[in-house]
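Shipment paperwork, digital attachment
Item: protein structure file
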Amino acid sequence: QVQLVESGGGLVQAGGSLRLSCAASTGRTFSRYTMGWFRQAPGKEREFVAAISWRGGSTSYADSAKGRFTISRDNAKNTVFLQMNSLKPEDTAVYYCAADTQVEVSPPRTGRNEYDYWGQGTQVTVSS
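Attachment content:
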């Protein structure tokens, strides 16, 4: 079992920054999982944002996140991060952390159906 808990969401003005964190309670095996961030805006489907391989050497980003968001991980602390800069109102959504425990590929997978553990989400609201 993998339990994921997100934090760091909030209200920010356009152009601002937020850093999301996701703490995993899976012990030593966390370092073997690909981790991803997804988001879901009201009335829309959940979409991929970013993912990072278990060693952190390979990442994937949605086009909307490239150049503004950075995913990273600290395997010693069982935590994955999403640094979000230059935020826009269209970034407003609930952000979810997810773990892909089934396979390790490079670059990391981006399909939401490929991730088998999910957190409860953290709300990010960007005002204009």
